[in-house]
Structure formats: structure tokens, C-alpha cells
Amino acid sequence: YPNKLDRQFTCDKANSSWVSDITYIRTQSGWYYLAAVMDLYSRKVVGFAMGSSPNADLVCRALQMALSVRQPPAGLMIHSDQGCQYTSKLYQALIEKYQLTGSMSRKGNCWDNAVMERFFRSLKQELVWQHCYKTHREARQSISGYILDVYNSKRLHSTLNYLSPNAFEASKKAETI
């Protein structure tokens, strides 16, 4: 897909632009991988999946979680890098099935997906690098808790006028009532 997002990291409504990426987590049981999907409107992680292989199934599970939770309209833009997981037939079929608009970073350009890169940096700096995970299960529980109970619920974002993603979304819903 062409780079339709073009570093436009702000949007004025939920479920119009999402970004996605994969990162790795070191454990004593071997590498563990996290795929995440974030709504650029509120910086909320709306879908994620973890597994022992950074494959197409992993990114599809993260996207399917986001689709199930948010039920976005057709045409939503989903942006990623050009990794083989995102160029796979499995992932492309999912985009087509849900009538999403695909967008991909330019080759080798991490700045085109800077918001997701920043999320992974925060995750690792605030949580992962402070732990020595023995098992994948331990990492999964810790990281899930961070995403749901800290990052989405409590972590303040300057982009959101120092609100958490959940508080930002709640404040916008209150404004429309």
C-alpha cells in the first residue's frame, strides 16, 4: 500500500486512522512478540496479540481484536510498516474483508510509524526493561496489565491535554451528550 497516512498522526474522530506494528520482548524462555493496534484519535491501544513467532497470524489476531472491540466503519485507515507480516495474503485478506484502507510506511522509514514506535519505547522503558521475565506467560500477563490498566487507563499524554486515552475518549463522549 502507498503511504496514505503520510505522518498525519492526529485525527478528529475515533476509528478513522489506526497504526500497527510488532516488537519483541526478551524472556528467559526465548523471544516473545507483541503486535499492537492503536487508534490515533486517542492514542488508545485498541487491539493486541502476543506469541512466540512474529508471523502474519500474530498481526491478524491483533487487528481482529481491534475490529471486534471497536467495530469501525468501512474505509478506516490502517497503517503499518512493510514487514512480511503486513504484506502477507492473510493480513491483506483481512483488510479487504473489513473494507479497510491500507497504508504502509516508506521502506525502512521508522518515522512514518513514529506513534507506534513511541508506544513500544514507553512500554519497554516503563515496564519491560525493569523485569526479567522467566516465561512467555509471565510476560503476557505483565504486558497485558500494562496496556489495559496503565497505558490506556492512567498514563497521561501531552497530545491529549494530559489525559489518559480512556479519559480522553470519555471526555469527548461527554461533550457530545
Descriptive key words:
single chain; 177 residues; alpha/beta; 5-stranded mixed β-sheet; 5 helices; 5 strands; 19% strand; globular
SSE arrangement:
Blueprint: E1 17-25, E2 32-39, E3 44-51, H1 56-70, E4 77-80, H2 89-97, E5 101-104, H3 114-126, H4 136-151, H5 165-176
Structure description:
It is a single chain. This protein is of the alpha/beta class. The chain has five helices and five strands, in the order E-E-E-H-E-H-E-H-H-H. The chain has a five-stranded mixed beta sheet with strand order 3-2-1-4-5, with helices on both faces. The chain is globular and about 45 Å long. It starts with 16 loop residues before the first strand and ends with a helix. 36% of the residues are buried. The mean pLDDT is 92.
**Strand percentage, roughly?**
15-25%
The Cα radius of gyration reads 16 Å
Mean pLDDT: 92
- Extract low-pLDDT stretches: none
Structural class given helices, strands, pairing? Answer: alpha/beta
SSE pattern, N- to C-terminal: EEEHEHEHHH
Distance from first to last alpha carbon: 38 Å
**Tally of separate helices:** 5
The strand order across the widest sheet is 3-2-1-4-5
DSSP E strands, number: 5
- Major beta sheet summary: 5 strands, mixed
